[in-house]
Amino acid sequence: MSRLTLRAAVVTLAAWSAVALGQAAQPPRPDPWARFRGSEALLGVADAPLSRPLRLAWSFQAKDGVASSAAIVDGVVYVGSRDGVLHAIDAATGKPRWQYSTNSSIEESSPAVRSGVVYVGDLDGAVHAVDAATGKARWTYKTEGEIHSSPNWSGDRLVIGSYDEHLHCLTAAAGALVWKFRTAGPVHSTPAIDKDTVYVSGCDEHLRGIDLATGKERFELPLGGYTAASAALAGGDAYIGTFANEVLAVDLARRKVRWTYRDPARSFPFYSSSAVAADRIVVGGRNKAVTCLARSTGRVLWTFSTRARVDSSPIIVGGRVFVGSSDGNLYELDLATGKKMWEFTAGSALTASPAAAGGALVIGSQDGTVFCLR
User: Fold this and answer.
1) What's the pTM value of the predicted model, to 2 decimals?
2) pLDDT tens track, the chain, 374 positions
3) Neighbours of 59 (CB within 10 A)
């Protein structure tokens, strides 16, 4: 090898080393929690690790109750309150960055953040698109009924349910209607998305699969009860609780119910959406309990009792389960055993679902307090 060639090789190696060192020096980008349940399949699983035990980092006071579940993206917490305000809160300090008024009430509709825009629905039936950096309105789309559903998206398509008995598909950029699909009742739940199919259930007691591109129905399946819970999709199955006091596993390929769980002791609805782990799901119930079921059979693996109904949807972070209860407590449970590992007293009912990203867990309460724990 000539001296010139050797020198070039050394320079190239040094350049590559500098790039590698520069990349290594970059802190890892925190995994965002950009929508309700954390993913388009609504799995309720967070990748970001959390401290043991969690401690209160800050609290933020809204003027009315918070049933909306937070989104956490790029160091900002986005959450709605019943006074109709969408809040952007600094995740590090708890200080407000901006507020956007919808002039209505934001109930369970939880913000979704996509490409620098925050989307949320209100009880006047409007979908709002708000600039994530400034809090300025981008566009508004009006449905004909209340919105409790949270926005979900795939690519440039935004989908959301309304009490006008339709599922609406909009362009994310402009809020233009792509299609709307009529169901046979109000759509309370958030639509789940798997590839090119949207799955939604509601007060018409059916689970429906709808083509994302065209809005044409691919199938419908009776569930035996109306649903407020959203379907969680994993491994070709949908997991969903109903007001017929059941949790169902639906085989989406065969389009049939694979198993059914019903509490043998108490008959209460399941308002909470399921969190899905490798071999189990975890769901809250109005029977005041958090229940863990085997994904393959629906067999009960464990049950944890709280002192009030559990409408909050649990999230799974590693081997830990976090869930709120209307008894005013946020619980940490061991995923393997259901044993209580820790609890935080919020002082007011927790019906919103926890969100976790960037080492923080955020949940709002019915008295309007938003808590951040690290």
Assistant:
1) 0.92
2) 444 333 433 333 333 333 333 333 333 344 699 999 999 999 999 998 999 999 999 999 999 999 999 999 999 999 999 999 999 999 999 999 999 999 999 999 999 999 999 999 999 999 999 999 999 999 999 999 999 999 999 999 999 999 999 999 999 999 999 999 999 999 999 999 999 999 999 999 999 999 999 999 999 999 999 999 999 999 999 999 999 999 999 999 999 999 999 999 999 999 999 999 999 999 999 999 999 999 999 999 999 999 999 999 999 999 999 999 999 999 999 999 999 999 999 999 999 999 999 999 999 999 999 999 99
3) 13
What is the token pair recorded at 276?
């899905």
Domains and CATH numbers, the chain: 34-373 (2.130.10.10)
Contact 31, 357 (CB under 8 A): yes
CA distance 91 to 176: 32
CA distance 254 to 166: 25
Q: What is the DSSP string of 217-235?
A: EEEEEE-SS---SPPEEET
